[in-house]
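Structure tokens please, single chain.
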Amino acid sequence: MTTSWIPAPVGLLAAAAFVLVLGVHVWHAAVMVRRHRLWHLLHILMAAAMVTMYLPGDALQIPARAGVAVFAAVAVLVAAALLVSLLQRNRIGVLWLLNVADLVWMAIMFALMEIGLPWVAAAAAVWFAGQALGWASGRFGAVLEHRGLGEVDPPTHPPPTLQSRAAPARISLILAGEVRARTRAGTVDGGRHDLSVRASLTAMSVGMAYMFLAQTASANGMASMAGM
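Here you go.
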């Protein structure tokens, strides 16, 4: 999307940054299991949508209504799964609630492409600015390390299952060595010392906040023109 706040060069740079964010979470989703894999998959979905939002052009790469439908449906599914887990007296973790809110905001982001509500966009910008600070400061990473996704013992790198998969020993050793080289052994996935995830989620939150600011400015501009 090209606007006065998002000229083509800025859009290309932002889209490229979100491709990097997507790559980080694809890698983590590949080596993680269970709740952490799902957690990364949700961030992959959001990062992919942000790539399409920032790509230069007069129109969205994905129809606004399709974006609203996808993110609203995923938000409902995740919320329903959390409710079932809660009814089963399982711990769900506060970060899942943030994820549901983020999915709802993504649906709203697509909706705002057709309806201009600057105060809603401004509120969303504040929300994601707060998340950027949370991940950059390490506070959200600390929450994740203390059952942030409801797990008693959050998985660390390299994951225990990596070396136990039914794969040739040589390949297993190569993969395990690569994981150790990229992330310090014993580091909690997404935790305070997992700099790849913290940096990617900080960048994603900043990019989302900026997109909402651009929507705020666009909606205010349209309102001013309507009043003339």
